[in-house]
Amino acid sequence: MKKLDDLLEGKNVTLRLVRKEDKNSYYEAGFRNVDQESMYYTQTASVFTEEQIFSYVDRITEDEQRYDFLIFDSMGVLYGESVLNEIDWQNRSANFRIALFDQKHFGKGLGSESLDLTLKFGFEKLDLNQIELEVYGFNERAIQVYKKAGFMTDEIEHNVKLIDGSLSSILKMSLTKQQYRQ
Asked: 43 is in which domain, residue-wise?
């Protein structure tokens, strides 16, 4: 299945599929000077080299089981990514993840708007039946955003990851097309 190359436009953000020519800007925005708080909330354990990021972009642009959208503000500044991956075309399901590369963008509704645009694309353009995600229990801001968008908690894996000396839970959440429409 050939990827749809839609531009998703919202009030404050624009989402566009990552392209091979985005390698430099993607690396500069998200990986050259990594924001520690962003790494904490996504539990990104590694700092990636420019070569690793370039190779990653080459791979994901060709992968038909994923849609990796770059998030731009109204001035065209790249500040994050919103991703549907692990797409199971037979069962019409996908995994969702999002990352804002710098904490200065947290709490402004930009992630929520990006989530809404990605969900609309997934359910309406890709005709998915379910979108699921995992989120750490300490990430209360993200959990509230997901609940507001309609996600339901399906499962909680209690105390499964040691983070900064404390055990954290992982919430598995999902949203069906029917729930989305309501």
From this structure: 7-130
Judge contact between 25 and 16, C-beta under 8 A. Answer: no
Share of the chain above pLDDT 90, in %: 60
Asked whether residue 114 is domain-assigned, the answer is: yes
Predicted model pTM: 0.89
Does residue 126 form part of some domain?
A: yes
Q: How far is CA 42 from CA 10, 74, 158, in A?
A: 24, 25, 18
8-28: pLDDT as tens digits: 999 999 999 999 999 999 888
Q: Where do the H-state alpha helices sit in the chain?
A: 23-27, 36-42, 50-62, 110-120, 140-148, 177-181
Please give the backbone phi and psi of residue 102, each rounded to the nearest 5 degrees, phi first: -140, 135
Residue 26 belongs to some domain of the structure: yes
Provide the CATH number for the domain around residue 116.
3.40.630.30
Q: Give the list of residues 6+ apart from residue 146 with CB closer than 8 angstroms, or none.
A: 115, 133, 135, 173
